[in-house]
Fold:
Amino acid sequence: MTEKLVIVGNGMAPGRMLEHLFEAAPGRYEVTIFNAEPRVNYDRIMLSPVLSGEKTFEEIVIHGDGWYIANGVTLYKGHKIVAIDRAGKTVTSDKGVTESYDKLVVATGSVPFIIPVPGNDLPGVITYRDLDDVNAMLLAAQSRDKAVVIGGGLLGLEAAAGLKERDMDVTVLHVMPTLMERQLDPAAGYLLQKAVEARGIEVITKADTRAILGDKRVTGVELKDGRVIPASLVVMAVGIRPNAMLAKEAGLEVGRGIVVNPSMQTSDPSVLALGECVEVEARTYGLVAPLYQMARVAAENLAGTPEARFVHSETPTKLKVTGIDLYSVGDFADGDDREEIVLRDASAGIYKRVVLKDDRIIGAVLFGETADGAWLADLQKKQTDISAMRDTLIFGQALQGGTSADPLAAVAALADDAEICGCNGVCKGTIVSAITSKGLTNLDGVRAHTKASASCGNCTPLVEKLMTLTLGDSYNPAAVQPICPCTTLGHDEVRRLIKAKQLKTIPAVMQELEWKTSCGCAKCRPALNYYLVADWPNEYADDYQSRFINERVHANIQKDGTYSIVPRMWGGVTSARELRAIADVVDKFAIPTVKVTGGQRIDMLGIKKEDLPAVWADLGQAGFVSGHAYAKGLRTVKTCVGTDWCRFGTQDSTGLGIRIEKFMWGSWTPAKVKMAVSGCPRNCAEATCKDVGVICVDSGFEIHFAGAAGLDIKGTEVLGLVKTEDEALEVIVALVQMYREQARYLERIYKWAKRIGTDEIRKQVLENTARRQEYFDRFVFSQKFAQIDPWAERVSGKDKHEFRPMAAVPFPQAAE
Amino acid sequence: MGWFEIGALEDIPQRGARCVETPQGRIGVFRTADDKVYAVEDHCPHRGGPLSQGIVHGASVTCPLHNWVFSLETGKALGADEGALKTIPVRLVGGRISLALDVALAAAE
Structure:
């Protein structure tokens, strides 16, 4: 007979407990979960990447709705349990649902600590615990105004970095003299502060908050020394405390948290508790690794094997802010009986400190270079005598035992029980045996079977190295794809070598880079031709024989061998005169189909190749130039009517679109580039699915990029907001030039951006104005050689041979 | 079968092609990087693409419509695709190109 298991709370700990339970005792319990949050179980560690925009909520869901259905779990979303009746063995939710249980698991988590100062309940003061908090911060961040984060610990710094990514002006207030003082020594805290400040986040230490100011909503924070920091958003991240209220009211034994024994049993034998809400052997926990250990113990207890025991161990700390590497484990306070080994490299921003007692590691702090963290933590955990390697300990594992600096050697040298994934407590042996016994060949497989690297992802490089070690050459995650079978080199290497070796012709590239074929193929030649055009605009002679037919004849080949052509209509604006000219051409050459394109212009289809120059001559008379509808280059800039006509328009979107198109037409790019400018956030020009888009707002121009609406559908990323039209043009041009210089041939902007990282692009073309100017200037230079109308050129006789047969052999009577 | 002169080597760009209209259909005439000349029917057996508009590499051409690759020497499709083009005999004498065409038989009558 199935027993009834009720769980209060749906965080990561009970979620993991259920996974273990369903594996150990399938079908034993009928499970009901009450979740105060109106959603499924998600990875709370990953809220910071959601805040910064690196991930979406969907990406951090652990158990989707389907999981609950598949496992027969009843999930009450948005139901907060308000009472436990231990005598009657029932729980009741705030929405009035009462459920009886045989076993109850309390996993109410923690509540953020709110500092007791005046104004701490003003609108605009929020904590950082769940998705609702993140959503509130994202909403506030739209103002791009000032934010204050109170608390310079792990959570506070992640919140600050995320808000900065969202373009807020961020100040961190920390009451202690150095940041993260519980996990870092002062030296590392200092380096951390420098790194945080280098991202444009202001840090004030020894900042004691006196009051939060504001009338109807928050306007600033006042410190005890009288300073006032203005802010429209205040995030409180000063710590958490176990949420034990419900348990206390139910009469369970409660200290700082709900008191449980090492098998997660509360003072009531029918009630278990786990997670941040519990106190086990006088300790409370807030990091995921011990919570997952509790989950395993609780599951075994419920499955009827209550021998499992929770054992305390030091959990290493890592900061999840991209670009800041820090790692700390154990105890690193100074003491007479302790020795320390320190390594500093000021220019590289590296600091490493290992604290020893009786030739054993008791603590370690690494900043800037954290690859040896797992190894040191393992030595610490096992209390290994390190006297033999003391001299070289600080230089890391690679230097021990005379092994080379081979990055795999360090991983190979790890013991089988060395922990690889801290979040999920997965050790090396488990991963290796899963790879071999389950025949796993990719990272996703390892994640699915072992959970390693499935939470915060910091150990992914380690897991990948393990896979390389185990699978040998058959696993090569970063394998460079050669451009084509003519070479072993990938696009990036070829681009780099073209610049480095000053290669300026296709034969030179093939000779110097040891091409395996005499003159390449239809895959590599167009790529090389583009790279050379882009890198040496004034020196390289475009090789038309290495271009695809469309770019060679400046029209689009159709399935029957006829062509279509699209003249430019700047910004999608046309006139009666232009339309008349098109109508005349259509009549004169009996063009069978005329169609309006998605890019706001007119396509004429079914033109015989021989007729193309004559068609272009007539169109040229009316002022038309090529629309490059065939090119890996700038296609269209779609616009709406903006302030010219629209009652909602905030800027002259049509004017800006035309300006961009006139500035950028004719440029060759790695793949096609489609743009749009919308005059207001209603976005009638659909700018948010373009390679580059602009959304005009009252305060300026929001620049978007990396959208797609073809094979893939993807909304754009926001690059940033600029105030003037000139600046908008400059940023867009710089962005496209960066793409021209870095992307692989046929790689659209969204794929390139995914590879390079939105942050890096933003840094280079928005934040670093000097860099932006350089890109802009290089684009302008290159346009000198590119802005020549190819249709006009061909009307005046260029490439005649392309447009007519070489000869016609007539029927018999005319032969010879 | 008879030889028909169609023009000069210089009329075709290196690594390029031109087409010739004949009573037996359109023929693509190809010039390689090392000045060898080949002629094949200008009609891809896959979907009828005009091969004379393709990219010429080595002694092969890639069809502009769906990237089938053909040997100009044998007319056979290379790689995973199966199919063949009819090849036409070519003569290059003193920089002038001639094709051997079936139509010549009729013309000789």
